[in-house]
Amino acid sequence: MTKLQSSSVAAESSGTASLLCARGVAKSFGGIRAVRGVDFDVAAGEIVGLVGPNGSGKSTLLGCLSRDIAMDTGKVLFNGTDISGLRAMQAARNGMGRTFQSVRIFPELSVWENALMGRQWKGVGLRSMLCPADAATRRRAGELIDLMGFPQLMHEYAGNLSGGQMRLLELVMAMMSGPRLVMLDEATSGVNPTLIESLKHYVKVLNRDEGVAFIIVEHNIGFIFSIADRIVVLDDGKILANGQPEDIRQNQEVIVAYLGA
Ligand SMILES: Nc1ncnc2c1ncn2[C@@H]1O[C@H](COP(=O)(O)OP(=O)(O)OP(=O)(O)O)[C@@H](O)[C@H]1O
Predict the structure, then answer these.
(1) In what order do the strands lie in the sheet with 73-78?
(2) Residue predicted with more confidence, 127 or 96
(3) Which residues line ligand 1 (CB under 6 A)?
(4) Distance 236 CA to ligand 1 centre (A)
(5) Which numbered atom of ligand 1 lies nearest the CA of 219?
(6) Three-state DSSP class for 154?
(7) Which long-range contacts (CB under 8 A, 24 or more apart) does 240-248 make?
(8) Is the pLDDT of residue 251 over 70?
């Protein structure tokens, strides 16, 4: 086995138990084998970067882990619970949050109202969403909006935000369910360099102060290498490499398949 071993070995060697432990995850779309029997672990409080060429299966794998996509085969344990048969909403109630490649906010609601909509991932039913949020929920929404640096935009329509601000708002919404793990899918896409730095800062603060683990799917190599504790490289639906950023940077197979010379 090379220095860049399977993710389970990496999680074990870090001395921490897995928060997320996926084994043999596979998903095909017709004849396209998007994910081919992948093992994937995330330790509590770890930031894992998931990178790879276009079409290598990153979003599909993320969808299988978050339960947005039904796997063909495989098993996903989260926080010791088998969530393989659960739907995304149920997985979210167990402590998973996520954002999507294309931003999913409510453009005709204010920033504040969008933050409160994040409650739905906590299992708050739609009917209950018509009732005023309780004091703790309102306090948390205010805290997160402050943390993301846009209290002055609290009452702005979300549809009027810049692309980067929308991404930050999605992170606020994902955080409203009190997740232990948040998955970000191409969070820097369409975001200006200043807000990319802000996003990096907020992810680090949430990780450091609240112990939130992250899986971050990214094409922005500079961003991912500067934030991830560990990087997993997918290629053609399989794990090509898995290791510390400095090892991944020097891995010849990764350079050839993805990073370039
Ligand atoms: N719903 C779908 N129906 C059919 N094929 C799909 C579907 N979703 C993904 N695929 C295919 O599965 C493969 C993996 O796609 P996926 O989006 O997971 O890759 P990716 O690494 O996230 O790509 P990108 O970096 O371009 O977003 C691709 O060949 C893609 O065309």
Answers:
(1) 32-43, 18-29, 73-78, 81-82
(2) 96
(3) 29, 32, 34, 52, 54-60
(4) 10
(5) 25
(6) coil
(7) 240/52, 241/4, 242/4, 242/5, 242/6, 242/7, 242/10, 243/3, 243/4, 243/5, 243/10, 245/49, 247/3, 247/4, 248/4
(8) yes
The pair of structure tokens assigned to 204 is 């680090």
Burial of 203: CB neighbours in 10 Å, binned 0-12, 13-18, 19+: buried
| The residue count for the chain | 261
Confidence of residue 261 (pLDDT cuts 50, 70, 90): low
**ipTM tops 0.90:** yes
Q: Whose CA is nearest to atom 31 of ligand 1?
A: 55
Residue with tokens 């935009």: 153
Question: Separation of 29 CA from ligand 1 center, angstroms?
Answer: 9
pLDDT surpasses 70 at 40: yes
